[in-house]
Amino acid sequence: MKIAISGKGGVGKTLLASLLSKTFAESGYEVIAIDADPDANLAATLGFPNSDKITPISELTDLIEERVGNKPGQSGSFFNLNPRVDDLPEKYSAQLDGIKLMVMGRIKRGGTGCYCPEGALLQALLAHLLLQRNEVVILDMEAGIEHLTRGTAKTIDKLIVVVEPGHRSIETAERIRQLANDLNLKNIAIVGNKIHNQTQKDFLIKSLPNTEFLGFIPYDDAIINADMANRSVLNSSQPAITEVKKIYQSLVSSNKTKTE
């Protein structure tokens, strides 16, 4: 399965990506978790030691120059748009509890698009991970889907947009849905997060009609307290774990139905 997760900053994308990665791994799947958010927190949330020491792929200047033929930051020269990347998941991933983690870094620089050496490498790497790998791939993205192209979008089994009760979060979800439609990505679903009560659930359902809702993760002070104490949040909230396990079951069942 290939799962992409997006939504407004702060809504809980990384928490969902982490809990799903953990649940898939504990269920026997091989998992590659990809942190494609420039504000990279997936390693820390998954509990990787020394997570702040992990260098994003986009900052490995020697590797980029070797594979692409040009140094990062140089956009005015010719470079290889189809670099070799099949060995990178083994060489440049961190591993913990059955999860391989890759931190992508920025794929765009302001106003330049991705026509740059680091962008070429990241696009090729993401295409390899989505098109040619058999693991479960869980992609934690920023508030958009800039890392996806029309070619890679067709491999996404589910684009999950995380929303919290609030108009700005819903507006971001609508923008993401428009971007997804531009790429002909149709398998879109919503996960509500930080839900206090049924009224907030109903608000989200009413605000996003004709949309598949995979689940609603309840608000839990235990998650905030764990983060404040610099402890892993993965085991801090049993209600959140229980709901994400239901979301996992829904994803697996849907994928089995699609492949039968």
Describe the structure.
The chain is α/β, with parallel strands linked by helices. The chain has a single domain (2-259), classed as P-loop containing nucleotide triphosphate hydrolases (Rossmann fold), CATH 3.40.50. It has 10 helices and 8 strands. The chain has helices spanning 13-26, 42-46, 61-68, 88-91, 117-131, 150-153, 167-182, 198-207, 221-228, 238-259, and strands at 2-6, 31-36, 94-96, 99-103, 136-141, 158-163, 188-195, 212-218. An 8-stranded mixed beta sheet has the order 3-4-2-5-1-6-7-8, sandwiched between helices. A hairpin with a 2-residue loop joins strand 3 (94-96) and strand 4 (99-103). Helix 1 (13-26) packs across helix 10 and helix 3 (61-68) crosses helix 5. The longest helix has 22 residues, at 238-259. The two termini are 14 Å apart. The model is unreliable at 109-113 (pLDDT under 50).
